[in-house]
Amino acid sequence: MSSGKPLLSTSEPSSATSPHHRRHSSLTIGSLGRLCHNTSISSSVTDGSQHSNLSDHNDELEDELEEFDEDISPLGGALRNSVECPAYLRTRKKFKPVDLQLQLPLPERKLLVSWGGVTDPQHVWSMREVSGASSQAVSSGIQDYLNKSQRSERFLQISMQLKENLTHHDNPRLIHINDPKRTNDNFEYSGNEIRTSKYTFLNFLPKNLFIQFHRVAYLYFLAIAALNQLPPLAVFGRTVSLVPLLFVLTVTAVKDGYEDWRRHRSDRNENNREALVLQSGKFHPKRWKKLQSGEVVKICSDETIPCDMVLLNTSDPSGIAYIQTMNLDGESNLKTRYARQETNKLVLDGTIISGVITCEQPNRNIYEFTANLEIKGQRYPLSQSNIILRGCQLKNTEWAIGVVVYAGKDTKAMLNSAMSPAKRSRLETYMNRETFWLSVFLLIMCLVVAIGMGLWLNTHKNQLDTLPYYRKIYFDKKKFGEKYKYYGIPMETFFSFLSSIIVFQIMIPISLYITMELVRLGQSYFMIGDRHMYDSSSDSRFQCRSLNINEDLGQIRYVFSDKTGTLTENKMEFRKASVWGKQYGSTLSVDGTGDTNVGAEAVLEGRRTWKLKSEITPDSELLKLLHNDLSGDERIAAQEFFLTLAACNTVIPIATQSPSSSDTDSTLRASYGIVDYQGESPDEQALVAAASAYGYTLYERTSGHIVVDVNGEKLRLVVLGLHEFDSVRKRMSVVIRFPNDSVKVLVKGADTSMFSILKRDHPDDNHTKHATQSHLNEYSSEGLRTLVVASRDLTGEELVEWQSTYEDASTSLTDRSIKLRQTAALIECDLTLLGATAIEDKLQEGVPEAIESLRQAGIKVWVLTGDKQETAISIGLSCKLLTADMEQIIINGTSESECRKFLCDAKAKYCVKSANSCDQISVWRQNTESDYLEIPLGTKLSSLQQQHAGQEEGASFGPLALIIDGNSLVYILEKDLESELFDLATSCKVVLCCRVAPLQKAGIVDLIKCRSDDMTLAIGDGANDVSMIQMADVGVGICGQEGRQAVMASDFAMGQFRFLKRLLLVHGHWNYQRIGYLVLYNFYRNAVFVLMLFWYILYTAFSTTSALTDWSSVFYSVLYTSLPTIVVGILDKDLSHKTLLKYPKLYSAGYRQESYNMSLFWITMLDMLWQSLVLFYVPLFTYRDSTIDIWSMGSLWTIAVVILVNMHLAMDIQRWVVITHISLWGSISITYSCMVVLDSIPVFPNYGTIYHLAKTPAYWLSILLIVVVGLLPRFIFKVLQQIFWPSDIQIAREAEIMSKRRHFFGSKPDRISS
Amino acid sequence: MKEDDPTVLKAEYSPSDGWRLTKIESSPEELTRVDEAEEKFTQQELPACKPILTPGLVITTLISIGIIFVPIGLGSLSASEHVVEIVDRYDDACIPSNGDDEAAKRERLSFIQNAKTNKTCIRNLVVPKKMKHPIHVYYQLDNFYQNHRRYVKSRSDRQYRSPGSEGDTKTCAPESEVDDHRPIVPCGLIAWSLFNDTYGISTKDNPILINKKDIAWPSDKNSKFGSNVYPKNFQKQDPVGGGKLNESLPLSEQEDLLVWMRTAALPNFRKLYGRIETDLEADEKITVVIQNNYNTYSFDSKKQLVLSTTTWIGGKNDFLGKAYISVGGTCLFLAIAFILTYVIKPRPLGDPAYLSWNLNSATR
Questions:
Q1: Which chain B residues are Cβ-neighbours of A1180 within 8 angstroms?
Q2: Who contacts B349 (Cβ-Cβ below 8 Å, separation ≥6)?
Q3: Is the ipTM of this complex over 0.85?
Q4: Range with the lowest mean pLDDT among A1060-1074, B136-150, B163-177?
């Protein structure tokens, strides 16, 4: 047990160190928490401080993390298990500090909260956006931070978020029931009025402008406009230069204003809704915004709950209320909430309640609530099940009365609206690189102009006074000798530099950012509208939650997929059971309608009173056993087995067709009442349904008791206590008092956690245990999910001891979950094994095909699952991820050295080379690429031949599959083994990670993100995937059954895994092609214009004259040429979706960056240079020594450049639809009409130009010449490329179009694809 | 995947929620043509033309460019050849001292700046070919940056247009007002530097009339320069930049000014001086009497007199013709080259065997 060192070492220090840790972490967390409530403005500022803060506490936190990692692994469990149960109890106190630390992880639950959100279409509006701003700020801060810092620190970030919620016990919140005055006297608790709007009428303008100018682009705009206001620099008319900026600002302001107005309106609606409030003994309607903490509110059925309330009483005698939490967590099933029996009675009696609720400060955790209720000196615990939250709806309950504990912005719904972090697309990052180059050009050009100006002034300095076109001196008597706009050669040179920046400003294509946003909006419209990605079964559409990374979809190299709910449906079906060492249900799937079954059905029919919505055909043998009148261990075990299935859960039965819930006449009423089970876990639902099929129907559940219908007999069981499932214990248990006063503990849990707490002495049991164990292995190898069921009788003393600790634990305000866990350990030991269940997790439709396509496309699919290794492998096999011919490398180490050995062995065996230096990594990538694309190795560069030898050797092993478990990852991800894992994993075709914790999922994604340039995509549906989804470059959420957390955190969300194929191969490809072209074209478009101006300036004595009118210069990128690029960016497509799906390998164009890369940029720039020269010199030579005036020349250049860039675009358009035609030819016509309009205004010096010019043939001839000469090289280049170096896309495109044409002409295709 | 699901989805945009789909419940029969078109739009299946560069298309394009361009080129070249042009540089000839030394320069300057000196200068020219009327008389200035930013901006179109905006001279500095703050009309550097050489042409004994009417653009005359705006305070103080204006004529009638105010695009430019409405015979000797008033000597500028006929292409300029012919020729040449390429190294279009992964597996 040397591996347990970290655990032991941390348990050694006295408890004094632990609070130390905690204090530090809470400190940092505090700063983070404060940040959450700030507006986005401060995010950039606080980021820095946060950084330093973090690194300060780095070490301590890292320690904590280590412990966490230690502990989630079964290792911790194993250590504990090796100690006998009583012994463990004795040592419990010693371990306490460790346990204290242990509470920190609990990843799923906390994660749910940190990234929780609201989703109801009507209500999302505001909530999402409001705190959208704040939480986005946080997350973007985090994102920025993530990009900068080291890995371990990233983990810290995430874990910090996890821990955030744990530090709020300091000063409890006191609520005096039905006494809002007293409640709010001491502390100003916020009222229930919500304000989600950002602006008020007064602060709109300053605040909006302030926010808008956070964009660097706008500052650039502003700086240019400001420069232009300086007298010596007024290149453009002063007003004209402000137009683009004002335009953009106004549009954004109007949009923001409109959205805010909508928020105001919905706030008003929300605030003015009415609720019944107890005022002087009676319930009167009161507006929501007037509600205060401490008031007693009555809610009727189907009403929305106005604030977070503790239930006091409901229409149900036992105090149950059903609520739908759809708006909060997206789960559509009903959840039960209970009023405490004590308050329930009090209100029934008619007494006006008075009491004090002590509860924690407002926090974001919607899954936890800890409070105390004090009535008449007695204290009762309140928990999650006693509170109903704002935004939920009351269902199936006539009314409910509750006391307001959190109102308005303190409610969990309001605290909990988060948006996914802002991500930036890869292409945009690359774009910055090119923008840098463009700025270099810009500077060079400005320098040339400035130096030219300086030299020119120097050579003419004696003439300047009299030079008719310069004249720097006034000859007025008054001003005689005074210099007119002349500041000396150095200053003039400098001003010339600045004014040339103004003239050349659009070299940096600011409009590109706006264009890209519009284009992405349009692209997302089509992605959302794609009928093939609409899931009709769940009525869920595709969602684009982030608009910034559409094109990243076309460049994915790695897909990290969750298993449950993502690859599988998460619709559980009870398949097999092992009871008392005997297996049942194996024949079930083979002959489900066999004779024996019919017989069994008949046997059952007579006694059955309940019908399930989903039918399960029970195994006849097992039925017989159950109904056998013989008594015996086996039968008792079977009965207890099903009783456990029916009782040990949190499922809520809803008898949908029974008119009332009174339980006396149920036998009389109907033999076919329909029971529907609502529960948080689909596994439990499946188990309860199975129990019901075997005659143990869970019929009623309250906080105090459950009623199970055993073959028609009602069995009322008192629930003494319930230890809910948690990820540390991995089991749940319920303590039940039977009608005959015997008390039993019923437990179910994961096999690893269960086998260690079974009774050990009995030899018989050992037999059962072994049999069950082998059954379990069998089940999991079939890909079934297994649970072990066990029970135990409790003696009186044990019960008393447990009860007192339980009471104590469940009323405690602090560390309740830890105390409860300790309590659970009291009774969860020495259990009798009853059996095991196997549930099938069905694969989603089309998953194997989708995975196969992704694989062909060169995307590596990694599956990260919390399941067991066997289950993971079996699912891997069933979804064709693993194939029989694969070499499986299984890494299953329990210590660092072991893991190292495993890794090294595997690497040695399969000839995987280490990649330590950068170029080796790139070599590696090429190698792995060649592996995907099955490119023969001989064609590669000779310098790589050594590698190839290794590869070829390796090829004889067949494709590799790496299977690694979370346990090993603990060591590997923390230590320097990371690079080894990376080398090994990247050379494998498939990687399966099992038993991974959510943070490890993120860690694995991070491993790839850090060590390679490849794009990663994470897809998942559950809250445990949130960290992974946020870590990956692209996060995809599945709208599954596990709530909405994943969707809320994701960038894209969809209904089914199989849509991923279409999303990546089709939309990803299109988006990437489109945006890539769009960016290049925009660079070109602006640069060609600027360069044309530049050449002219060389002919104007460097005086930055523009021949074009001011308006034309401004309109050029805004009006004349913008629309076609947008339309093309949205609508153009190179290949049809059929072709793309047919040849998945075409996807590789994306990650090979074929549409946008440095060399394409430089080629485009060369082309741009040629075109600008043609643009400038053709008119120059045509009108050399002629009477041409400056405005005519400018007019010719304007129209020529507009036509040229539009024709350039036209040449590259791959798909002409009506809209493309309209936008393209429309743009040219608009340009002409604008010029006609501008030339028709007599106060402009250019008045009448176009009329005069259009009459001369030379004008038209030069336009034609410019266009043809300008585009000819590009055309030839294209043709040559297509003849000699056709790209795959090109060939596929030809194939697609040619086959259509052949089809059209009726002749048969003369070539059959190979 | 159901390919023909009749469900129609409609996307709606709202700023707070982004795009969302609403299902339109309708049976397939109810789908109107509009819906169908919308469906095709949202599914990106609109009827489209997808051009590909087939050899046919490439060759056709190149040949048609060649076929169009070569005749245009020939046409404009021959038009340019038909233009008869007489260019005479006179700035150095019409000045007493020529030389590069400082003294010569000073002498030149004092000559040109002195209003009293006789600046008449006679030039004899020979008509090389028969020139049909109208023969345009231009003056050409070289190295004169009429497109300089300071110069181009120094004007006030409002002032020129209406008498009411007389004081609108902000943009005209340094030639905006005279000493006593009365505005100069027309103000600005451009007007101030008005060209003022004059030409008188005669053959042997008969003077040839130079028609100076309608040399400015009709639009300038009619709308841009006011017919009721009269020159005021123009060239009234030293230094006088150039030509003076007849104060009794409105600006719209001062066509020389209008021509001058259409500032040239390039540093070497011609401006129309007038037209000769008679033919000139070949080898005819003509005499030009030049009043060499305009001072270009202080900044190394050339002055030339140009007599030229025009055709549809404009003045004499071979560029367009030559460019068209060479581009057309290149295209024809390329067409042939591509035909050969397609014959020698044909690549069947759209053959999946040429896909990179198929190619590689074939060679393996």
A1: 266
A2: A1294, A1295, A1298, B52, B54
A3: yes
A4: B163-177
